[in-house]
Amino acid sequence: MAVSGTKEFDIKAAPADVMAALVAVDRLGEWSSSHKSVSVETTHEDGRPHRVRMKVSVVGVTDEQVVDYSFEGDEKLSWTLVSSSQQRQQDGSYLLSENADGTTHVVFELTVDPTIPIPGFLVKKAQKMALETASKGLTKFVESQ
Fold this sequence. Notes:
- The chain is 23% helix and 50% strand.
- By secondary structure, the protein is of the alpha+beta class.
């Protein structure tokens, strides 16, 4: 059962600073307790991550994932699942726009579809945790830089 969610929030930093934090995928563990290890396997020509391998643990389920990142300028970062031991699908994105006061409005979207039978309430709990981590963890990480 695929589950999708969206979270919108503001960060007291310029969009370029938020994107820099998102591009630093090797530092994901500093603001996302679910990410146990992250390694960049390949990069795009501009040095931004392309293929990334990560070990993630959410609601007691540990998963080894490989995702491909793509970028649309400095406004959008997206990823799609290449392989996983626990998911059929995972698509996510961060869309950044500048507010009138120079802060950044973030729209985070995430869709996951686990391969193993997990009760719907646990899938939704994991998704809620991911959305909260994306908003609170990223905000704290960026604003403390």
